[in-house]
Structures are given as structure tokens and as C-alpha cells.
Amino acid sequence: MFLAATAIASHLSNTPQFQTWDVRSGLSLTDNQQYPAVSIRILGAGVDGADTSTVSPSVAVRLILERSDTADQKMDVAFRAAHYQLHGLQLTDSSGHTWARLKLNAVRDLPLADGYAGCELIFETHSEFTSKHCEC
Q: How confident is the model over 43-73, as pLDDT tens digits?
């Protein structure tokens, strides 16, 4: 599940719109003081199933930039690029695990310290996991 967030960060960092942004996953060791930034985080996951578990994480794509006279334009470009690049994308993480296509589920304001602005795009996906011990 956490490798899916890393795959999303890798995908966005390779797109032209985010070449000047600091793109990072929530578990990466980075300087969190670089802006503009995209931060990918797993917010949690629903789980359903018996012999196999369908794990459905909610993934936050946080767009963060410094406030300025052009911040609204920059945020709009970033929002459109994130949606265009991610909505409908089917991920295969670095372990070879395949996830269902990402679906944009919500967009929220991201409260930040003075001088910064942000929004959060919440995507959902799901995948099945098996256990050798389950006789549920």
C-alpha cells in the first residue's frame, strides 16, 4: 500500500508540470521546507473480504505553495495537472503489485501556516491481498 504512494510520487515527478516542484511521498526522507511541493500520503484504508482482503486506501495528493499574487494561477495549473496525470491511472508499484485505477474522490482546502496555501486531492484505489493463515 505504501509503495503505491511512492509510485504516484514517481509518476508526478516525471511530468513536465511538476519539474520545478519538490515531489515527495509521505515516508521519504526529504527537506520539507522546499516549495512549491507535492506531498503524497496514505490517509487510511478500508478493508473488506474473508479469504482475501480488499484493501482500499485513500491517497492524499497535497499541493503546497507560497502565497503570492500568482498563487491562484499556479495552484490551478497544478490541480489540473495532478487530475490529468492521476485520475484513471492504473498503478503497479515497485514490488509488482497492481492497483485498481485511481479515482478522484474529493478535493479539500489544506490549512497551512501563514504564507502558504494548499489543497488536497483525495484519490481512492483498491487491491486484493491474500493470507496463508486465513480460514475466515
A: 999 998 767 889 999 999 999 999 999 999 9
Contacts of 89 (CB under 8 A, 6+ apart): 11, 101, 102
Distance (Å, whole) CA 72 – CA 75:
5
pTM value is: 0.89
Cβ atoms within 10 Å, residue 65: 20
Flag whether pLDDT at 112 surpasses 90. Answer: no
Q: How far is the C-alpha of 12 from the C-alpha of 67, rounded, in Å?
A: 22
Query: How many Å from the N-terminal Cα to the C-terminal Cα in the chain?
Result: 22
Residues 53, 128: contact at Cβ < 8 Å?
yes
Confidence band for 29, pLDDT divided at 50, 70 and 90: low
For residue 31, what pLDDT is reported? 65
Give the C-alpha distances (Å, rounded to integers) separating 45 from 2, 54, 109, 111.
Answer: 11, 10, 21, 22
Look up cell 482475501; give the residue.
52
Contact 40, 32 (CB under 8 A): no
